[in-house]
Amino acid sequence: MNKSFLLGAVVAAGAVMLLPGVAAGLSRAGRPLARAAAKTGAVAVDEFRRAGAEAYEAFEDLAAEIREEMETERAAEAEAPETEDAKGEANSEDLRGAQAAGRA
User: Fold this and answer.
1) Is 104 strand, coil or helix?
2) What per-residue confidence (pLDDT) applies to 88?
3) I need a labelling partner for 15 at 20 to 30 A (CA). Which of 1, 43, 49, 97 fits?
4) Rounded to 5 degrees, what angle do the CA atoms 21, 23, 25 make?
């Protein structure tokens, strides 16, 4: 057998024997880090949710203002032809009255 193969096998066997102790130490040290990371993530999710809700509310307000403005414009357009028709009829009556006065 090769000398380097035996050295590698011994190192691997030693690592396997140390692995449970190292893993336990890492898990003890890693647990607070994992909890801190999870807590930070939860706080970030809450902040993003709050910011999203505020943005959604602002958009809804904007959409409501636009709808109200459009309804006002439609109402004004609906009234405008009636007003123009009434003005046209008044002008026609004035014109007829002037023509009648000119004939007399």
Assistant:
1) coil
2) 55
3) 1
4) 70
Q: What angle do CA 75, 77, 79 make, to 5 degrees?
A: 70
Query: How long is the chain?
Result: 104
Dihedral of the alpha carbons of 30, 32, 38, 40, in degrees to the nearest 10: -120
What is the three-class DSSP state of 1?
coil
- In whole angstroms, what is the distance from residue 7 CA to residue 28 CA? 31
The residue to which tokens 């396997």 are assigned: 16
Rounded average pLDDT per 10-residue block, the chain, 104 residues = 76 74 70 86 93 96 96 89 56 60 57
What does the alpha-carbon distance between residue 80 and residue 3 come to, in Å, rounded to a whole number? 102
Longest dimension (CA), the chain: 138
What pLDDT was estimated at residue 94?
62
In angstroms and rounded to an integer, the radius of gyration of the C-alpha atoms of the chain is 43
Residue with tokens 């691997």: 12
Task: Tell me what pLDDT residue 97 has.
Answer: 59
